[in-house]
Amino acid sequence: MGINNQLRELIKSGTFAGILLIIAFTLAIIVSNNIFLAKYYSSFIYSKFSLTIGNVSLQTTFIELVNTVS
């Protein structure tokens, strides 16, 4: 089995989502607690974005979206 086949099997499994979540969580903690990167992290989570599909539009920030959904 080559590395490509092993990678495909990992992506298909449920383990891959958990690994990505742990990596994203770890990076977010490191960036938010780093004095040099915290301002960029803060500006990212409070930046506004909009999603429009047809006549329906959603305008929010990332932090509002996360707090509303969870």
From TrEMBL:
Name this protein carries in UniProt: Na+/H+ antiporter 1 family protein
InterPro entries: Na/H_antiporter_dom_sf
Tagged with keyword Nucleotidyltransferase: no
Taxonomic superkingdom: Bacteria
Transmembrane segments: 16-38
GO cellular component: membrane
Alphabetical UniProt keywords: Membrane, Transmembrane, Transmembrane helix
UniProt-listed GO biological process terms: regulation of pH; sodium ion transport
